Amino acid sequence: MIDLHTHTTFSDGVLIPAELARRAAKAGYRAMAMTDHADHSNLDLIVSNISRFAAETGAFLGVTVLCGVEITHVPPPLIPQLIDRARAAGAQLVVVHGETIVEPVETGTNLAAIEAGCDILAHPGLITPEEAELAAEHGVALEITTRKGHSLTNGHVAVLARRFGARLVINNDAHEPGDLVNQERRKKVALGAGLTLEEYLQAESNSRDIVSRILGRGRAD
Question: Are the beta carbons of 146 and 170 closer than 8 angstroms?
Fold first, then answer.
């Protein structure tokens, strides 16, 4: 399994990176991204610390750890510059906290994130057809999430992703140990969102492709 959306004590997760990695490895994950909530105040702190953690301990963890951020509740006009700043600082993966219906995310966040070319738009809520089509064109992956609340619009996301050919990934948005769901739960959430078995397998393949691209880029650099 691969999960590209998790949180540590550097934002609102309850586990330090070492314990999150250990629990993920024990649960059967072979790669994960630590993507703590970031804005202009803490982005550099998150990226520097998670990058150092991965570099110093990664060979001993039993799971590949990628350094990422989840740009969260940032005003839409500022999202593009923060995505660029995250990548310049060394973030291997940039997730943007989408317009979930269970939080007061500012309207326009989904569009700004997609236009700026983030890697993954997390729990995009009632994403519009225009935004889904643009995500497909820009190669931005849309998230099917196993997390309660955010998952309420998974079916809507699945329908529009299918309609416009947007890539999907399945993430747990882990904040605590119980969020690290197993493979069977991931599959059931995906199928419950209306994905076919083939689409579910493709979503899992999309996550593997993202990790392979990141690791390949790292070796090339």
Answer: yes
Q: How many CB atoms lie within 10 A of CB 148?
A: 10
The residue with tokens 């990058």 is 51
**CA 21 to CA 27: how far, in whole Å?**
10
pTM, two decimal places: 0.96
**Percent of the chain surpassing pLDDT 90:** 98
Tokens encoding 32: 């994960």
Beta bridge partners of 97: 122
| Statement: residue 79 has pLDDT above 80 | yes
Residue 103: CA count within 13 A, CB half-sphere:
17
**C-alpha dihedral, 203 to 208 to 212 to 218, nearest 10°:** 90
**Nearest CA-CA partner of 35 in 115, 162, 143:** 143
Tell me the helix, strand and coil percentages in the chain, rounded to 5: 50, 20, 30
Query: Is 182 in contact with 157 (CB distance < 8 Å)?
Result: no
Q: What is the DSSP string of 74-129?
A: --GGGHHHHHHHHHHHT-SEEEEE---TTTTPPTTHHHHHHHTT-SEEES--S--H
Q: How far is CA 205 from CA 43, 69, 154, 181, in A?
A: 29, 22, 18, 18
